Amino acid sequence: MADPYQNNVYHQGGGDPYGTYGEGGGQEGYGYQGESYPQEEDAASDATEGHDDEDQMYEGEYQGIPHPDEVKAAQRAARAKARQAQAGATELDELAEQYEDIMEDCGHGRFQWTLFIVLGLALMADGVECFVVGFVLPSAEKDMCLSNGEKGMLGLIVFLGMMVGAFIWGGMADKLGRRRCLIWALTINCVFAFLSSFAQGYGFFLFFRLISGIGIGGSVPIVYSYFSEFLQMDKRGEHLSWLCMFWMVGGIYASFTAWGIIPHYGWGFSMGTEFQFHSWRVFVLVCALPAITSLVGLMFMPESPRFLLENAKHDEAWMILKNVHDTNWRAKGQPEKVFQVTHIKAPKTQEDEFIEIQSATGTAIQRWAVRTLTLCKLVLKNIASLLGPELRLSTLFMAIIWFTMAFSYYGLGVWFPDMIKYLQQEEYESKVKVFHRERVERFHFNFSLENQIHREGEYINDKFINIQMKSVKFEDSLFEDCYFEDIKSTETIFENCTIRSTVFYNTDLYEERFIDCRLENTTFLHNKKGCHLDIDEENDVLIYLVSFLGSLAVLPGNIISALFMEKIGRVKIIGLSMLISAGCTFFLFLSFSQAAIIAWQCLFCGVSVAAWNGIEVITVELYPASKRATAFGVLNALCKLAAILGTSIFASFVGVTKVVPILLSCTALVCGGLVALKLPETREKILQ
Question: What pTM was estimated for this model as a whole?
Answer without folding.
Answer: 0.79
